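C-alpha cells as discussed.
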C-alpha cells in the first residue's frame, strides 16, 4: 500500500467578505481535492489540545499520529532536528526569529521574508558578539536557519534550567501589536528579554541590514525568542505504524518533526516556505518518492503565510496551485500502484480575520483502497462540518488512515 499526505498549512478558515462571505476553500477552484472527497470521505480532525498553543509544532505531531500531550516539549527542539543540531539532556533550544519592529510594534515577523543569505549574516554576527557567553549557568549559541527562522541553543551544565515553566508568544500571532505586551513570562524572562534588547544595536549597524534599507527592504530590527524546549523522546514512525516515510517541506519545523520520526528528508530545489514556492517541483518529487517509500508527506506553507499577511486572494491562489500541481498529479499517479490512499488535511486553522492561528477542528479528505465513498462532493469547511467523521483527539486519525475502513 502506498500512502500520501498533503498538508496545505493553515488552509482552514472562516468566511470573509472579500470572498463573498465564503472561506478560501469554498472560493478556490479545487477539482482534484473535490475528487478526493467524491471518491472517498470528508471529515474533521482536532489536532490541537485545549491546553496547548494552536501552532504547527503541536498540530503536526498530532496529524502524524502522535499524542502531543505525551511527546511535545516545545517548537524549537523540533526544528533543531531538521538542522542537525544535537541537543544534550541539559540543553534547551529556543526559536530565534529575525523580526521587523521599528516602532515597538510587531510590524513584520519575517522582516520582509528576509533572504536566507541576509539572515545567516545577521545570525552569525550575533554569534560573534553574544555567542559563547555564559548565561544563567549555560553557554548560548546562535544557529542560522532558513530566512527569518533561526535557532538559539542554551547548553546547560546541569539539569536545572531557567526556562522551565516559562511561557513565550509566537511573533506571528501578534501582528501589528505592541511587543511589550507579549514578552516572555516566567522565571527566566529577563534572560530572553535582555538578549532581544542586545540584538538591536548589533543588527542596526550590520551591513546586510543597511543594504536592505538602501534597497527599500525591511531590515531585521531585533530577534524574537520563543518556542523553547528540551529534546523530545519519540518512538520512530516505522516502529509505531510499520511504514517507511519521507517528508517534503521547506520549513525546518515540519522537516524536523519528520526527521524526529525517522522519515527521510527530501529537499526540493525552488521550495521556499512562502507563496513563491515551486509547487510543481514538490509534486514531481513526491511522485518520484512513492517508488521508495510507503508514505510520502508533502507540506506547503503558502496558505498559512497568506493568512498571516491577511491576503485572501493569495490564499485562494496558493490552494489552487496546491490542487493543480500537487494533488492532481498525485491522484493521477497513485492508481498505478495496486493499493493506495491519499489524505489532504491542514495541521491547524489560520484565519484571515485575525491573521493568526486558531483552535478548532480542521477538514480532512481521504480516498483510496478500502475507503468507501461517503457521498460528499466538495472539500471545504461546511461540508466537513456536516460529516459524522470526527477525530478528537486528532492523533487517532493516522491509525484509521493507515488501516481503517
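Sequence:
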Amino acid at each position: 500500500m502506498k500512502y500520501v499526505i498533503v498538508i496545505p498549512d493553515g488552509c482552514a478558515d472562516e468566511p470573509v467578505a472579500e470572498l463573498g462571505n465564503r472561506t478560501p476553500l469554498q472560493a478556490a477552484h479545487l477539482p482534484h481535492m473535490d475528487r478526493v472527497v467524491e471518491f472517498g470521505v470528508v471529515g474533521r480532525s482536532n489536532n490541537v489540545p485545549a491546553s496547548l498553543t494552536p501552532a504547527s509544532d503541536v498540530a503536526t505531531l498530532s496529524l502524524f499520529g502522535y499524542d502531543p500531550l505525551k511527546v511535545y516539549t516545545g517548537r524549537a527542539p523540533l526544528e533543531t532536528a531538521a538542522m542537525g543540531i544535537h541537543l544534550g539532556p541539559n540543553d534547551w533550544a529556543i526559536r530565534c526569529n529575525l523580526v521587523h519592529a521599528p516602532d515597538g510594534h510587531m510590524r513584520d515577523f519575517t522582516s520582509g521574508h528576509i533572504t536566507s543569505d541576509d539572515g545567516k549574516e545577521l545570525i552569525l554576527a550575533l554569534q560573534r558578539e553574544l555567542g559563547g557567553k555564559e548565561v544563567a549557568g549555560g553557554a548560548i549559541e546562535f544557529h542560522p536557519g532558513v530566512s527569518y527562522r533561526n535557532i538559539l541553543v542554551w547548553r546547560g551544565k546541569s539539569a536545572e534550567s531557567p526556562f522551565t515553566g516559562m511561557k513565550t508568544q509566537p511573533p506571528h500571532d501578534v501582528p501589528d501589536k505592541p511587543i511589550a505586551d507579549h514578552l516572555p513570562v516566567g522565571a527566566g524572562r529577563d534572560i530572553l528579554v535582555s538578549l532581544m534588547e542586545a540584538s538591536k544595536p548589533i543588527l542596526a549597524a550590520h551591513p546586510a541590514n543597511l543594504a536592505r534599507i538602501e534597497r527599500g527592504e525591511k531590515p531585521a530590527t531585533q530577534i524574537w525568542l520563543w518556542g523553547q524546549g528540551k529534546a523530545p523522546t519519540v518512538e520512530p514512525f516505522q516502529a509505531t505504524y510499520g511504514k517507511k516515510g519521507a517528508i517534503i517541506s521547506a520549513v525546518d519545523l515540519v522537516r524536523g518533526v519528520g526527521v524526529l520520526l525517522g522519515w527521510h528528508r527530501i529537499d526540493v530545489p525552488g521550495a521556499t516556505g512562502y507563496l513563491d514556492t515551486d509547487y510543481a517541483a514538490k509534486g514531481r518529487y513526491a511522485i518520484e518518492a512513492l517508488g521508495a517509500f510507503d508514505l510520502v508527506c508533502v507540506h506547503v506553507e503558502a496558505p498559512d503565510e497568506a493568512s498571516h499577511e491577511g491576503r485572501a486572494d493569495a490564499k485562494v491562489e496558493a490552494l489552487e496551485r496546491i490542487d493543480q500541481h500537487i494533488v492532481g498529479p498525485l491522484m493521477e499517479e497513485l492508481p498505478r500502484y495496486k493499493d493506495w490512499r491519499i489524505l489532504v488535511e491542514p495541521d491547524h486553522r489560520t484565519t484571515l480575520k485575525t491573521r493568526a492561528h486558531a483552535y478548532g477542528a480542521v477538514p480532512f479528505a481521504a480516498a483510496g483502497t478500502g475507503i468507501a465513498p461517503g457521498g460528499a462532493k466538495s472539500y471545504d469547511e461546511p461540508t466537513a462540518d456536516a460529516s459524522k467523521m470526527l477525530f478528537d483527539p486528532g492523533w487517532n486519525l493516522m491509525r484509521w488512515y493507515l488501516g481503517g475502513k
